[in-house]
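Task card 7
Instruction: Convert sequence to structure tokens.
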Amino acid sequence: MKEIRLHDVKRVFASSTEQLPKNAAAVLVPLVGRDGEVHLLFQVRAKTLRSQPGEIAFPGGRIDPGEQPRAAAVRETTEELNIRETEIEIIGTLEPLVTPNRSIIYPYLGILTAEDIQPSPMEVDHIFYVALSDLLAAEPIQGEMEWRIRPGKTVPTDRLANRDAYVDRTYKTVEHFYEHEEYLIWGLTAKILRQMLRTLTQY
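Output:
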């Protein structure tokens, strides 16, 4: 292998640009005016999907190469809810979330003006609405979840500094579960929802 000098490293990376993580995703928290009140739209994922079938989520998905998170949130919403871009008004953002598998989710807030939304049956089983006032007044169930990490056989654990911290390591997190009729909203959807609600209560 030839010797690599500093100017070689500089040349290789000269055209590099900032990039989003490969598994990055974007979602939209949809706000809808109904009966004079603000409601949030939730969707139940199609039961035929390979990933998380039947779970409650906000519209969203993976960011395509070269795409910005905001554009991805809008695109995914149009595809899943069968609405036009002109029927979505982005009004703000929330703090990105890091998932247990270390991907990043960029959440946006948007107002939907579409009427009689008929989502794509390939992606969405059905949608439902919850009044913002009910969510603000809700007291979610709290439960502790554990994530356990165990090094594989080829990991040289005997050579790791602070070895005991990485062998059979357990992370504990508090999850919030929001109840609405027969629905249970939890996981990343609840984390995004909780962040939005906490932001609103600060004003």
